[in-house]
Structure formats: structure tokens, C-alpha cells
Amino acid sequence: MPRFPGDIPAGVIPACILPFHDDLSLDLKSFAKHLQHTAAVPGLSAVTINAHSTEVASCTLDEQRAVMDAAVDTIGDKLAIVHGVYAEGSLEAARIAKQATSQGAAALLVFPPGPFTMGQNSEMVVAHFKRIADASDLPIIAFQYPLAGGQGYPRETLNRLLDDVPTVRAIKDWCNNVPQHERHIMDLQSRSRPVNVLSTHSSWLFSSLVLGCNGLLSGSGSSVIADLQSELFHAVQANDLAKAKAVNARIRIMTQLFYSNPFVDMHNRMKEALVLLGRIPRAVVRPPLVKITQAEIELIRKGLIEAQLLPVGQAMAAE
Q1: Full-prediction pTM beyond 0.90?
Q2: Residue 85: its H or E element
Q3: Which of 22, 73, 128, 137 is most enclosed, with most CB atoms within 10 A?
Q4: Residue at 102 is within a domain
Q5: Does pLDDT of 67 surpass 60?
């Protein structure tokens, strides 16, 4: 199974969506096709599964195992696989980490526990991550949420976490604050044991990447625009501003649609885009999510055409 060079997560890492049948069961056949399409994009370093984009909150541990098995069978010899660790408590998080490790994951994406919305301190954060690190020797990507919601880690807590849990080698940065994001990049990537910043500021990705992120981890990447995100990242890395601006102009069309209100429908909208593109057979989501309106689907169709992702002839056939 592929790993990250030096076990330090970096580069372009799309987060994949998870198709369902009409009865809400896993459609692993369509998932495999989605993985194959995503993995064929040039310039990727890994893919992510069992995270927000796969509606992990509605998946059981057994279903997460089946999703990982499908990923390993389909692309395990081609790309590193990042496995999400989404759990309300540390014991369950450790069980998920252990399972993911045994199945061949290359890294763990650790979500903040839900109870942190009611408050946290550095002792709790370090204890949570240590429990996971004790269950797995894989590199950890800490998911940094906005501070306002209570689940983001203040600077002092983040520094203590990186000091006390050395297997944390990257953060998925969703702080949603430009000065804080830039500080993360400057401080973390220059540590004596560097910790990479992977941007998930997908609605302003160009602005984020030019600050110096060593990678990105995005659901809109695998779902619709993995090729454009890869082109953007590598253009920024090459200081090709003209190309980066041109690619970003196409990306912006879709991100303005995907990340509109309500924000929780982002991957719901991406599924509808994939149906229009002919890449998955249906855009079924699990409750409490519900299907978006036909009017919104039409906006997505028009956006795909404007972004030059959907030929007009194919778009007409999809109606």
C-alpha cells in the first residue's frame, strides 16, 4: 500500500463521495467507479474516505470497514488512502483508528469530538489524540475547525498537541480566518519537525494556496473538480500566476454553488453534479439530509456548462 514520503501528508488529496442505493444502502459498485475516475487524475498524492464527503456521520463502523475495503480493492495499489476518524468519544475514535490501520490506511484524518462544542482545554485535546496515537502508528492529520464553534484548537493548544503527540504530521485547516490560516502556515511548516498545512478552504482555495500551504484536502476535489484543483495547486507551486488565475476562474463558478447556504448541503450538491456528469447513477443522501430542489439542480447544470465541465450536448441529454 502506498504511503506519503516520510509519512508526512502533503499534496493534492481529494475527499471522495459515497453513493447510496434508493433504499439508502451502500452502492459500492458505483463507489468503485467514482474512486477509479478520481484516482486517474494527474498530480494527486492520496484520496480520503470515511469523512464528511462520504457522509460518515450516518455510517456504522461496519459500513466504514466496507468502504475502506472497497477503496483498497479499487485503488489501494495506486494511491495512499487517508481514513477519517469521526467519533464523539476517544474510545470509539481509537477503535476506528485501529481498524483503519489494519486495513492499510496511510494516514488518519481526526475530526474534533462533538462535545468540544461545549468547551475544551488542552488536556482534553491531547488526551483524545494520545488515545488515537496509542491505537495506531499512522501519521495523523488534525482537522482544525473554526474557533468560534468551540471545536477549533487555539494556538497554545495546537502547539502543545504537536509537542506531545509527535505522530500529528499535518492539519486540515478550516479555521476560516485568513490571518490565523497564514499563521498556521508560517508557524507549523517551519517547526523543527514540520507539520504540513493542508487547506480545506475550498471556497477561496486560490487565495489560501498562495499563502504557502503544502497541500489541500477537499471534498469538491474528488466530487467534481479534482483535475482543476490539482492544476491549481501545481500552478501555484510553480509560481505560474497566469495559469493559476485561469484555473481558479473555472473553480470559482462551482464553489460558489457548492458552498452556498445551507452549507451542510455541499456534498449533496456535488452528488447532483456527478449525476449530471454521468459519473454516478443517482444523488441519494442519507437523512437528515434531503434531496435539493430541481431549481438548484438546474443552477448546478448551468454552472457545469459555464465552467466548461459539461458539454452543452451532454447537458441537454441529462435534462
Answers
A1: yes
A2: strand 80-85
A3: 128
A4: yes
A5: yes
Are 139 and 169 spatial neighbours (Cβ–Cβ below 8 Å)?
yes
pLDDT (tens digit, 9 = 90+) per residue, 287-301?
999 999 999 999 999
Q: What is the dihedral of CA 4, 33, 51, 215, to 10 degrees?
A: 40
Task: Provide the greatest CA pair distance for the chain.
Answer: 58
Do the Cβ atoms of 183 and 155 come closer than 8 Å?
yes
Distances (CA, A) of 72 to 25, 135, 160, 317: 20, 21, 34, 34
Residue 39 resides in a domain? yes
Q: What is the pLDDT of residues 191-235, one digit of tens each?
A: 999 999 999 999 999 999 999 999 999 987 666 899 999 999 999
| Res 315: pLDDT | 55
CATH code of 141's domain: 3.20.20.70
Cα separation values, 10 from 2, 134, 293, 296, Å? 13, 23, 37, 34
The proportion of the chain whose per-residue pLDDT surpasses 70, expressed as a percent, equals: 97
pLDDT average, residue stretch 31-51: 97
Q: List CB contacts of 136: < 8 A, sequence separation 6 or more.
A: 97, 98, 100, 101, 108
Q: Please give the mean pLDDT across all residues of the chain.
A: 96
The whole domain housing 73 covers: 5-240
Q: How many CA atoms lie within 13 A of 252 on its CB side?
A: 9
With respect to residue 12, please indicate whether it lies within any of the assigned structural domains.
Answer: yes
Task: Please state at what angle helix 266-276 crosses helix 294-306, rounded to 10 degrees.
Answer: 70
Q: How far is CA 132 from CA 96, 148, 190, 272, 274, in A?
A: 9, 25, 25, 35, 34
Residue 251: phi, psi to the nearest 5? -60, -40
Query: How far apart are alpha carbons 32 and 48 in whole angstroms?
Result: 13
d(CA 75, CA 105): 12
Q: Domain total for the chain?
A: 1
